[in-house]
User: Fold Putative ribosomal-protein-alanine acetyltransferase from Gordonia soli NBRC 108243.
Amino acid sequence: MTGTGSVVDALTLADIPRCAALEREMFAEDSPWPAAAFRAELNAPYNRYFAARDRPRGDLVGYAGVSTLGNERDGHECEIHTIAVAPAYRGRGLGRALLAAMLGVADSITAPVYLEVRTDNDTAISLYESHGFVRSGVRRGYYQPSGADAYTMIRPPRDGDDAMGQKAGMSTR
Assistant:
């Protein structure tokens, strides 16, 4: 539960049409993911996708996905693929709740977390930095077709505790 009248739980195949619609609304200038891309992501065994739902109806208002790469012998690492919240629901802590769910996946295996974020997305950058991410590089022209640059950010491995010393992850599952 996020405390905002919303809940974070697992993204399902039934959510795909809404995810694709939100992508078209929010990322029209940078090749929004079609439904087929969400389907492939959900079907990959190394990915975990989360949904933010408005209560009481359970409408999908945000989503996020993280992949776990590597193995126990050589070590794991996680990569955040996407995080998005519908414009009408921003500022309610849903992005923070989705990020916490993904970081819980990484923390459960003590893995570093990587991501890319637009260099002009100050809100997202601030959120990531507040969770221990640091900028590690710039990818010029990363987002297409707009040509916007991205920062590569990394958060070092944690042992299951978030920056506040509390257990990270989902409280409703």
User: Anything to note?
Assistant: The longest strand covers residues 59-71. Residues 23 and 32 are 5 Å apart (CA to CA).
